[in-house]
Amino acid sequence: MNKKVLIISNPGKFGADNYCEGVKRDVENYKKFFTSPLGGNWYEWEIEHLIQPDVDMVKNLLEKMRTLDYSIIVFTGHGYSMDGDTYVELKPGRDKMDTSNDMCVDKFRLANKKRLIIVDCCRSELGPINESEEMHMEILMKAFAQQNTRERYERQIQNTPLMNIIMYSCDLGETSGDDSRKGGYYSSALLKVCDDFGKKYLHKDGGWYLNAVAVHDLAVPLVKAKKEDQNPQIEKPRSEPYLPFAIV
pTM of whole model > 0.85? Predict the structure, then answer.
């Protein structure tokens, strides 16, 4: 299967008040998850990370990705909403009025393909894991090491209809929380849900998977427990089956 994970990150300008140290942690956590058996055993060369790219670079890469069988796009960093649409800031502008390298999330859609889009950023109107959890995750990944989940993961994707699922860290008009040690509230919640899923089914017969919609739904209360006014949202088909997120 020809597939790719594209991670785009923008923590902001270093030293600025809104610089998000947790964005770097998000990137590390996502890479570790996707290359693990729990996340589908993606090869490292199937994952590309762009740090504060300009808009033309992203557009060119998205054009090349049109032929893929399956793709995941993750954005972690700064963003906002305007006229009902969500925009991500690919890189810091020269000033607050510079939006030349901002991109509407709708540009990530690809209606005739299977694509999962995760957007962890603020959506206010324009105007991941502690040390003990990390240690447990390492133990969990070692326990999974001999399991060949990649083939089953790809088979599950093949059995899913064409769809785009877009997962937002908050609602329009809201801001997303960031923890310099654990990562974004939403991203770290998504990966914690997958970690808990792995623990639950580790010693059971294989064949279990958790779809993207279920992961989002389970992450919502974890996010709200940290930030009551952050309400993650999702766009999805009205009927199952949905694209896989974690697999055992």
Answer: no
